[in-house]
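Regression test case RT-17, inverse folding.

Input:
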């Protein structure tokens, strides 16, 4: 077997996965604008409203992963992700979940609950990217969907960045609205351990490992495209926003 076809060791494969973080949307100009204090209130509200489309799709995506998964032990652990986002009330213990925490972020930046939840501000590009990700989870083997979730490898850094910079740059945002980011710093680390172990176990040949990198880059493209769409709609520093597409005549 040539070196080009030889599988990477488990450690080398993990390193290859982690190196894909160079394309994570923490580096996108729209996110950089948000986290360096250059965003206007309208741009922040636009980001929060559009990202809600992604937030509500996460448990739907996770349900699709579970519906394709034949491994009971994986399903037992994976269901925690749905509970994290949808919330739960079990034996008197109540957690409102990440979706509600995101709504509270929206309220803190000046959106109403109705305009967050009815998705009226979501751009076509964001909607298309989110639907592509959910469709991937519905139609691909569950192990591939687990691999796609590994953008969580890079998520704690972006949440910590927001927690470190937003209170200083945007003191008008109630700090309670940042609870989603605080929660996800811990949750994402836990989820990564599970998803990474599955990926390292399943993608064993060099061809499979290359496929895993392609899958992870597909998910990175989804997140980058969402930021592209928001940058077009709301503008970047020194750029004017592009107006919404006119509504269709019916």
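Golden output:
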């Amino acid at each position: 077997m040539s070196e080009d076809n030889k599988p990477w060791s488990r450690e080398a494969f993990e390193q290859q996965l982690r190196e894909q973080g160079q394309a994570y949307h923490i580096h996108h100009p729209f996110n950089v604008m948000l986290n360096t204090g250059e965003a206007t209130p309208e741009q922040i509200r636009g980001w929060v409203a559009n990202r809600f489309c992604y937030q509500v799709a996460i448990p739907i995506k996770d349900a699709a992963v579970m519906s394709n998964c034949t491994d009971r032990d994986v399903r037992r652990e994976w269901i925690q992700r749905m509970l994290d986002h949808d919330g739960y009330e079990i034996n008197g213990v109540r957690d409102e979940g990440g979706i509600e925490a995101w709504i509270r972020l929206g309220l803190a930046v000046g959106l109403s609950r109705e305009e967050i939840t009815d998705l009226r501000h979501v751009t076509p590009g964001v909607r298309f990217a989110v639907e592509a990700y959910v469709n991937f989870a519905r139609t691909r083997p569950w192990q591939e969907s687990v691999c796609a979730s590994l953008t969580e490898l890079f998520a704690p850094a972006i949440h910590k960045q927001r927690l470190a910079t937003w209170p200083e740059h945007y003191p008008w945002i109630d700090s309670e609205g940042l609870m989603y980011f605080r929660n996800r710093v811990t949750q994402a680390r836990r989820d990564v351990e599970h998803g990474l172990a599955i990926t390292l176990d399943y993608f064993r040949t060099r061809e499979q490992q290359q496929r895993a990198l392609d899958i992870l880059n597909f998910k990175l493209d989804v997140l980058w495209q969402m930021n592209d769409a928001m940058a077009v709609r709301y503008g970047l520093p020194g750029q004017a926003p592009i107006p919404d597409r006119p509504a269709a005549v019916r």
